[in-house]
Amino acid sequence: MALLFFIISMILLVLYFKEHNKNKKIESDYKYINARLLDIINNSENNYILIPSDIKVVKETAKGINNLLEKFNDRQIDYNRNQKVILQIFTNISHDLRTPITVLKGYIEMLYLQSQKEDLPPAIHATIEKMQRNSQELVHSVNNLFNLAKIQSGDMVFHIQKVNLTQVCHEIILEFYTILEEEKFHVEVNIEDKPLYANVDIEAVGRILKNLIDNAIKYGNAGKFLGISLYKKDNHIYIEVEDHGAGISEKDKIHIFTRAYTADRKKGNGLGLAISQELANSMGGSISVVSIPQEKTVFTIRL
């Protein structure tokens, strides 16, 4: 009787350790699967889970996950292909529109100049002036569409070189001198006399700054303040553009750099900030924003 009890006990003990080892192997396999999934998600890998396991439930789990990954990868490939097609169409349309709209703007400009010499009714003068402003906005919008499409399709060529950003900032501020004076803005320029250099594309930096200053004048007009700062910190060059207008709400801040998004549809098409961010990213930089509504808004370019 004692012998039988001993034999049964040993069998149960062997079965226990066997089951315990199996459970440990299952736990180890699932930890590996989880780690591989995290790698695939974090590194955007188009990969699968390969696991040398003879446990049926683990093999079935891995197979199911691989099927999902395969479907996801196929859809990602289709999405990327469609995005390229859309961008190409976008580029072609923008390019085709540029010439006729530029010609139209030229005719309107001629009409406007001629109207200044003629004794026309005030209503006609006002209409021609409105046509001129709208034609300028239209050309600006089409150029923005074209530039954004070129950047996102990878067709825009960047000429990276050592650039004196102190000089660039001063020159661009001077370009806005007339409109800032007309709009009675108080301007604060915090730029040291010594040159600060960065390896950038000078045209891209100029376009970013112009977009940000233009936005500050357009959306921050109520505060009548424009601040420009340039400084170096931790091996990076920073340019700040500040206004004291209505500001940006937390809801809008999330989408502010999204193409075609604008908090005020009456004041823009939402392309300026999207283009600025794409340009900054393409040069290895970034743009961020801090805003306290009704107090101040600061856009910071890091290069």
Total of helices: 8
- Strand residue content: 5-15%
The coarse overall form would be elongated
Work out the radius of gyration: 31 Å
Q: Which residues form runs of ≥5 with pLDDT under 50?
A: none
Tell me the series of helices and strands, N- to C-terminal.
Answer: HHHEHHEEHEEHHEE
Estimated helix fraction: 55-70%
The neighbouring-strand order within the major sheet is: 2-4-5-7-6
Largest sheet, strands/sense/barrel? 5 strands, mixed
Structure description:
The protein has 303 residues and is of the alpha+beta class. It has 8 helices and 7 strands. It has helices spanning 2-42, 56-117, 122-153, 165-175, 177-182, 202-219, 250-255, 272-282; strands at residues 161-164, 186-191, 197-200, 225-233, 236-243, 286-292, 296-302. The strands form 2 sheets. It has a 5-stranded mixed sheet, covered by helices on one side. Strands 1-3 form a two-stranded antiparallel ribbon. A hairpin with a 3-residue loop joins strand 6 (286-292) and strand 7 (296-302). Helix 3 (122-153) runs parallel beside helix 8, helix 4 (165-175) packs across helix 6 (202-219) and helix 6 packs antiparallel against helix 8 (272-282). The model has no long low-confidence stretch (mean pLDDT 79).
